[in-house]
Amino acid sequence: MARSRIVLVVNAGSSSLKYQVLDAASGGTAASGIVERIGGPGRLRHTSNGQRHERQVTCHDHTEALDAARAALREHGPDLDELDLFAVGHRVVHGGPSFREPVIIDDAVVSAIEELIPLAPLHNPGNLEGIRGALSRFPDTPQVAVFDTAFHQTLPAAAHTYAVPAPWREDHRVRRYGFHGTSHRYVSRRTAELVGREPGACNVIVLHLGNGASACAVLGGESVDTSMGLSPLEGLVMGTRSGDVDPALGAYLQRVAGLDGTAYETALNKESGLLGLAGVSDLREVESRRADGDADAALAVDVMAHRLRKYIGAYAVVLGRVDALAFTGGIGENSSLVRAEVLSGLGVLGVELDTGANDEGEPERRVTTDGSRIPAWVVPTNEELEIARACLDLVGDRTIR
Fold it and tell me: Which residues are the active-site residues?
């Protein structure tokens, strides 16, 4: 009998747990959901068989959140207890310099992820809690860690090295790591298919644009540059993150405003970006205010688009030849305004926007004219499927007990 290829994908955040049950071989999704506000009264939203279900739940930790998800799956399907679960795949934000590929989770891997918490204090602790909860609930099922940073481990030294003192780099692992790697890997491969090339023969600039945002230069299927750095703060303008700022800004604000390091980091991560420019972090609200003549909202869109065009231009030089641009993520897939603002400013690269295709069409579509020297595509990301496929590739037909 053929062995099941059903994978449970877990994406555990600091106070939430997203889950999806899918067939790694076919890509079909059986169910998905999220448990929100872990630590107190919260909410579970679950979708299966085309039906959405919602309930109030109280989960004190990620293990209880996983139990709530399993209860929803038992009630609405599919019941994990009745499946021959192939693997549990976990999204882990930071893999540091060591993890270049997905790995089967054991005690050493758990310890390594814990040891990397200083590099990702906002993300890795939640990822670990999700892993520990799944290990306790599925002790006989292979568990796989898929790292957001792994795809960027192919960055050449010139791209990942910061020009900072050697002790910082050698003793404290200071370098560019990059994030959203699972999305960049999936989207770059799918884009290669769309333009009729093998991934190894296709150069793509991927723009993953959501509340967090990053650009990636993919050369022949490998990441060679990316906008996020040591942390997810560097690079593009995001919902509440500033992206690039002058490195002297922190010391300046300490002198003139008495701002300490913690307050400075908090401000750049949670009070900046679109929120700092327009007063709201949701791009949909920014666009609405811009349409009503709000100058701050208009400036926010201008700053965001300018930063994007600048990175695209730089990455075109890094790649030498660009075969396609790809927009993905919540903003990249849904904001025709942002795509238009970006693409209409790339005439020097021979990019020609197709306004009609940009404004409406299938979720996956080309948004440039046939005469555009570089085609631009909207490519919905599927990180869960990429994680499931990583489980399939890694676990294979081995049985781990």
Answer: 148
